[in-house]
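Appendix C. Worked example: Pyrroline-5-carboxylate reductase
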Amino acid sequence: MRDNTVAFIGAGNMAQCIIGGMVRQGYPAENIIAANRSPEKLDKLQQDYGIQITTDNLVAAQKADVIVLSVKPQMMADLCRQLAEQAPECKEKLFITVAAGLPVSRYEEWLGQVRLVRAMPNTPALVGLGVTGLFPSRCSVYEQSFTQDMFAGTGQTVWLEQEAQINSVIAVSGSAPAYFFYLMQAMQQVGEELGFSPEQAKAMVAQTALGAATMASQSELSFEQLRAQVTSKGGTTHQAIETFKQHNLETTVKAAMMAAISRAEEMAKTL
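Step 2, the predicted output written as structure tokens:
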């Protein structure tokens, strides 16, 4: 399975974290190619991971068995049409896309009826703790297994039965790191108002978030049960939780997540 040559067309942050995860998991660096217009990004990738690099998208695609489309959504149509017109043999290869908002139907419009996996990773993939939603179209069991192996170094993967679930993945995990960062930002600001230095407040909040997430991931208890364990009735934590409830935190969280889904649906229509 690791004899396949994988070409990343586009070398942004997400491509970099997938490449890093692959190499850390033992994927042969010589079987990975990155194509990008920026020589600086390519040089850094080659220096860090020892992969092949090129500024020519067609060269990368023609060498590859698997093509990862990791350019910005608004650039995707031009890239796909270029591949279809100038490297038509690529239609027989497996495509994986990490672009948000573009349904399978768009890729089939530009490339034809190719074998494709839509992937929706999140930014903690950069540290190997991400969640990636995967939706296959026309893929074999082998190709799904390969994709699973490819993303193993970035964290957990979730296979989806319906393409529409990609938008739900965006709301639950894709956009979610920003939700937590926003809460952590607010907590740090209050910590500073209480007299801690910015460095102290950030470290305290980040370590507490890490500890809570680690406890949750290692426990069989629900989030509600874990919260109850540290919430003594009438105590300080209870008072804080009651304040969250009074300000309708759950309603706000749901509204925010549904807004993310609505925006994803809008993007699918306009891109």
